[in-house]
Design a protein that fits this description.
single chain; alpha/beta; 4 helices; globular
Length: 111
């Protein structure tokens, strides 16, 4: 039986690969994706996650946007020097067709 997981991520190039592997793994069932800032700004990472689940044919998997900044530590630089402004190596992928959940990622995790 596949282990159910919520995949918490800041999808840039590296996390895009990790999420793709998780979505294709017979050992895992991704029941949701939550995102934060990091490799790119919060709105960008959220849309990247939504794009990735759609590209893998999993548009039934909910995606919730989380923190856009650090809660405790001072803000550090984003990873845009590696991942580009779009978080995907400046490949400028098309916008996703689906919508993000209307609740914060933390609320989704708790539910």
């Amino acid at each position: 039986m596949a282990k159910k997981i919520i995949f918490d991520t800041d999808p840039g190039v590296d996390d895009a690969m990790a999420l793709t592997f998780a979505l294709r793994s017979p050992e895992l069932e991704v029941v949701g994706v939550t995102t934060v800032f990091g490799n790119a700004a919060g709105p960008v990472t959220a849309l990247n996650a939504l794009r990735l689940v759609e590209l893998e044919g999993n548009d039934h998997i909910p995606v919730a946007r989380g923190a856009d900044r650090a809660v405790v530590l001072p803000a550090m630089e984003l990873g845009t020097m590696v991942h580009g402004e779009d978080g995907m190596g400046n490949t400028n992928p098309p916008p996703p067709k689906g919508k993000l959940l209307d609740i914060h990622a933390a609320e989704f995790i708790v539910e």
